[in-house]
Protein: Polar amino acid ABC transporter, inner membrane subunit
Organism: Lachnoclostridium phytofermentans
Amino acid sequence: MDFEFMKSHIPLYVEAAKMTMKISLIGIVLAILIGLICSLIKTLRIPILKSLVNIYIEISRNTPLLIQLFFLYFGLPKVGIVLSSESCAIIGLAFQGGSYMAEAFRTGIENVAPIQTESGLSLGFTKRQVYFHIVLPQAIATSVPVFCANIIFMIKETSVFSAVALADLMFVAKDLIGIYYKTDEALFLLVTAYLIILLPISLICTWIERRVRYAGFGNTSPISGN
């Protein structure tokens, strides 16, 4: 191992890690919003839109993120739509993550006992109030383990962004290997960078899952979308 080489190139990995975290954060937030909207459409059985959501989920879940990125980056310019590498990465991550989040929300909603809705209605709540104040909070709480798994999954998926020339961690590692042939050093720094990003998130997710379980939620067996 050439430790001097590794030390001198750490700043490159730091910048790449910032880019990876930025894309991940925006993509995850958008995916949660997409997932919430899609799950509402599905559980409320809104005509036509429900069918469109089902088509979106099937396409998103059954095509690799890499293929979706190629479509955005290389396919859309054929019809006059040119997106930057960063935009493609965000859209691609939100597109794929949204379908997993939608299934997480849907699973959580279905795990809420019908008597909860009936009790809310008997107390004088409207259907909208029951949904947003009783059903949805419990659904989110019971789906925390799936949300956490999806978030970690989405961050790990960012390793394919280098395919559309985004200067992320994998891009830097491949660049250094190509220029200096320092494969071991570049890959060691790559693995270390992902561990530094993912390990704290994993620990935080574990802590949140325990807190939710102690509060009386999360004892069901939600189905992971991954």
